[in-house]
Amino acid sequence: MPASSLSLDTLAALGGPKAVSRKRPAWPCPSDEEIEAVAASLRQGREDWRYLCAAPKGGPGEALEERMKRELGVPFAIATAGGGPALHIACMASLQMGDEAITSPYSWGQTTSCILQAGGIPVFADIDPETLTLDPQKVEAKITPRTKAIVVVHIGGVPAELDALRTLADRHGLLLIEDCAQAQGSLYRGRPVGTFGDFGCFSMGSGKNLAAGEAGMVVMKDRALYEKALLAGMHPARTGAEVQDPERRAWIDSLIYTYRINAISAALAVKQLDRLDAMNAWRRRNVKALAERLAGVPGIRALKIPAHRDPAWHMAWWTFVPEDVPGVSRAQYVKALQAEGVPIAASYVGTPIHLRTVFQRKQYHFGHGYPWAAHPEGEKIQYRAGDCPVAERRCAEQDLHMLGSWAMQDVTPLLDEIAAAFRKVTAQLDKVREIRA
Ligand SMILES: Cc1ncc(COP(=O)(O)O)c(C=O)c1O
Description:
Elements lengths: L31 H13 L15 H13 L3 E5 L2 H12 L5 E4 L6 H8 L3 E4 L11 H6 L5 E7 L8 H11 L2 E5 L7 E2 L2 E2 L6 E5 L12 E5 L2 H11 L2 H7 L3 H4 L13 H32 L5 E3 L6 E2 L5 E5 L9 H11 L3 E2 L11 H5 L1 E2 L2 E2 L20 H10 E4 L9 H15 L2 H4 L5
Helix pairs in contact: 1-10, 2-10, 3-4, 3-7, 10-14
The structure holds pyridoxal-5'-phosphate.
The site of pyridoxal-5'-phosphate has 15 residues, from helix 3 and helix 4.
């Protein structure tokens, strides 16, 4: 387009000026108080090695566990090296080789890989289109005599339908494992997620709601499960002191992964917990404010989350509505907005998990065919396109996400600019159709 025909309204994708001039705040962003707390903890390490290594109890790792136990109202907690280790520990305590575990195809891969890591067979149930979390009816239809657990994820921070899943688990004698990696601070009927399952698994990785470098936590209510979890991932200095059951004591120092938390991350997490609620309150406010600004904008719609499920939005999901913008593809829509400076992206999940290579080839670290070969009918288990149509359509056509960890503070002026960019782009759909995506 010749420069002379460019105006303020010209789409940035076609050479015009950007509608969004403000930068997103940096994240992660430890506060001065948090940095000082870490430094003080390190200094204590000169006198007491537990401030440098969380193998035995007593240092910041235990302080973090005590704080989480108090805040969540649970009796047992194990601070871990990450959310992945927390999930793996939970699955090792719940599954044996060849056991089935039902999970969601719409997540970060580790919601599923923890099942495989423990030798379990992932069985996928579809999601609900409005909340993107496991549909309990679809879960029920997948239960077999070999099902031992449900691994449910609160994706993006949206709490799954926990009452129904808890009821199902109890009725069928299954363990319920909550992947709360993206949901620290999310509430279900006013109660924190992670306290409904037999295990609640959290991530405190640097992009999460609580950003402690690399860290995680698994919480439990049952002592036997706690002892099994300890044996799977904790140092004998701890298991020797804590595991009580004589049969389980025989397994001390036999099964362990080095999954304990780094004491430095623990010190950071303990201090940052002081401002988690305030940060999550900003997330909630910002997502609501953006939804209000985008209401009625063609091509995008907010999710419909029932009032008893209160997300502490780790990421905010939106739905692309092609019928609103005929002839405009999702790729064109996103490209036009990105060019304006809108922090929007399509398809966080990308390929639904059941359609990824590991399931198409049924090949994991154990070698071709394992762990499926440990299941009496493992050869018959197949993962096909069409198994989970809601998740598949969501990934292929509808996924959009906007607002991430950086939105844990007042970003109102940026939200106003984002809304203006949407208005600019959607007022010129004929031009958006010209964009090569
Ligand atoms: C849903 C989900 N589960 C598990 C994990 C793994 O957590 P970590 O990176 O702390 O191991 C993540 C990390 O992004 C996640 O988003």
